[in-house]
């Protein structure tokens, strides 16, 4: 059996916050990414014992789209369904255009990079290689996977460089075996700046409820600012938008009404997505008194069971005939490693995912500030316009 090892996304984000009223438009791709991202986030949260979760679903979706180019018809249909677009052509066109858009940005702000490694004993299918380089802006390189130490070192160097040193050594030599035929990678790197940073002098230790009866002290940032805001009683949560100085980028913070309300909120978002609420955000009409904890989260998941649950289990059992010349490949493992850090200067986020394939064949008086105290488990998302780049949950 030959294996195709696919690694997805590494990401980094940081920023300064200010209020701005940007007019974004919802797109069919944005809606599809939104719903798939919220489902994947819920699945990751449910499987996590820690309940502090960060992920970059877009990296997974991006490489599934690329993989579908060489997949069997059955697996291609499963991927199209998960990614939520009408058909294969529209799906690949949409992700190609998204790759083009992100590749045109300043790489110091945003990098979306794809890379395909192929074993020195094989060659990529001509059509797959063309699509990968032309439509997904992928680099292609030959590696000797029988020298697993050297292969891991090469991949880790690429990951370290693309994430500006924020994620190191995401792969180890023991994940590669002599029958590894190829590997696919995706990196998403974002570094923005809050327009109005939180003042470090305002950060104080405050109570954070990890349950109804238990609290811990967390370094908590403070900001008094006009922000976009929404209450959703059906969702059981309130939310605010923290825009970055760089146009198009924003963080959404979703605060459940109940201390133990995060699972219920996440369940509802997994069914309807977050964009409906995001696009209903409006000026609060008064300053928002925001308290939000500084936090840092690292997550590492095996995504095989999650992708089986989400209806793309065929990639683990059926050959993809169009990736490697003369040899079918199938997925054996999928994993993701992710990182996020939020402090007064901004937010930093990173994610790394892997898939292993095996081959067989107006008031008169100023109103009082609106209180928005993030003192309980909450959700957060980083978006570019209507595309969810990162999604996470913070519980303790």
Task: Outline the structure in words.
- It comes from Parnassius mnemosyne.
- One of its GO terms (molecular function) is serine-type endopeptidase inhibitor activity.
- With 396 residues, the chain is an alpha+beta fold.
- 26% of the residues lie in helices and 36% in strands.
- It has helices at 28-47, 57-68, 73-83, 88-103, 126-134, 148-162, 262-272, 275-278, 304-309; strands at 2-7, 53-55, 110-119, 138-143, 180-190, 204-209, 215-225, 228-232, 237-243, 249-256, 282-283, 288-293, 295-302, 320-324, 327-342, 347-359, 370-373, 378-384, 387-394.
- Helix 1 packs antiparallel against helix 7 and helix 2 runs antiparallel to helix 3.
- The radius of gyration is 21 Å and the shape is elongated.
- Mean pLDDT is 86; it is low at 1-21 and 359-363.
């Amino acid at each position: 059996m030959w294996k195709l090892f696919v690694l997805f996304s590494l990401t980094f984000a940081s920023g300064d916050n200010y209020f701005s009223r940007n007019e974004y438009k919802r797109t069919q791709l944005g809606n599809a990414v939104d719903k798939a991202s919220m489902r994947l986030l819920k699945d990751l949260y449910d499987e996590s014992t820690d309940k502090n979760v960060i992920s970059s679903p877009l990296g997974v979706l991006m490489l599934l789209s690329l993989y579908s180019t060489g997949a069997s018809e059955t697996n291609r249909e499963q991927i199209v369904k998960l990614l939520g677009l009408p058909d294969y052509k529209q799906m690949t066109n949409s992700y190609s255009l998204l790759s083009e858009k992100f590749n045109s940005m300043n790489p110091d702000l945003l990098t979306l990079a794809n890379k395909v490694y192929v074993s020195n004993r094989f060659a990529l299918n001509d059509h797959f290689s063309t699509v990968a380089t032309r439509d997904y802006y992928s680099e292609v390189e030959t590696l000797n996977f029988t020298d697993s130490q050297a292969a891991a070192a090469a991949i880790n160097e690429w990951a370290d460089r693309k994430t500006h040193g924020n994620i190191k050594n995401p792969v180890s030599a023991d994940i590669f075996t002599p029958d590894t035929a190829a590997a696919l990678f995706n990196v998403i790197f974002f570094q923005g700046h809050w327009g109005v940073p939180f003042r470090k002098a305002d950060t104080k230790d405050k109570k954070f409820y990890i349950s109804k009866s238990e609290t811990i002290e967390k370094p908590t940032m403070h900001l008094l600012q006009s922000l976009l805001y929404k209450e959703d009683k059906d969702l059981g949560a309130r939310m605010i938008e923290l825009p970055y100085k760089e146009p198009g980028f924003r963080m959404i913070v979703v605060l459940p009404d109940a201390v133990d309300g995060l699972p219920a909120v996440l369940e509802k978002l997994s069914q309807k997505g977050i964009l409906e609420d995001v696009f209903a955000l409006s000026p609060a009409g008064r300053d928002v008194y925001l308290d939000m904890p500084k936090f840092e989260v690292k997550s590492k998941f095996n995504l095989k069971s999650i992708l089986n649950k989400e209806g793309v289990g065929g990639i683990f059992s059926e050959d993809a005939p169009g990736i490697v010349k003369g040899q079918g490949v199938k997925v054996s493992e999928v994993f993701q490693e992710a990182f996020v850090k939020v402090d007064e200067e901004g937010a930093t986020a990173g994610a790394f995912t892997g898939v292993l394939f095996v081959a067989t064949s107006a008031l008169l008086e100023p109103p009082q500030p609106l209180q928005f105290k993030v003192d309980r488990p909450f959700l957060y998302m980083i978006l570019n316009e209507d595309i969810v780049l990162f999604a996470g949950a913070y519980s303790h």
